[in-house]
Write a structure and sequence with these properties.
By secondary structure, this protein is an alpha+beta fold. The chain has three helices and three strands. The protein has a domain at 31-112.
């Protein structure tokens, strides 16, 4: 009990000399980092600048089947307004909902332009 009283008294006497520091100014938090997002998709609605490649056709067929539409396997769709793309983004640490981020969309095949597509 006497030790506790001495500690309490010493904290009270020397507490006026304590200076506040923000934790982020004196420490680095391990594990705080950005997250790289990578995806694959289709850009549709291109003005004839899309591509006719096997992976674009396969992805297009899969997309249609996910919507409940089936194509005859012997039918080759004309998809010059569709392009297969890779999507990359860097999600910064502490990103809040609704915050904008930069996204890069790149054609995987031979699409000449992605402008105007969705």
């Amino acid at each position: 009990m006497r030790l506790f009283t001495c500690l309490l008294l010493s904290f009270a006497l020397f507490s006026h000399q304590v200076f506040a520091q923000r934790i982020k100014d004196v420490a680095s938090i391990q594990g705080v980092r950005s997250n790289q997002l990578i995806g694959y998709g289709l850009v549709v609605g291109l003005p004839g600048t899309g591509e006719q490649s096997p992976f674009t056709e396969q992805s297009f067929r899969t997309m249609l089947s996910n919507f409940g539409i089936s194509l005859d396997p012997n039918t080759k769709p004309k998809i010059k307004n569709v392009a297969a793309v890779a999507v990359h983004a860097d999600l910064p640490p502490f990103t809040k909902p609704g915050q904008t981020i930069d996204v890069t969309v790149s054609s995987i095949g031979e699409a000449s332009s992605l402008q105007g597509g969705t």
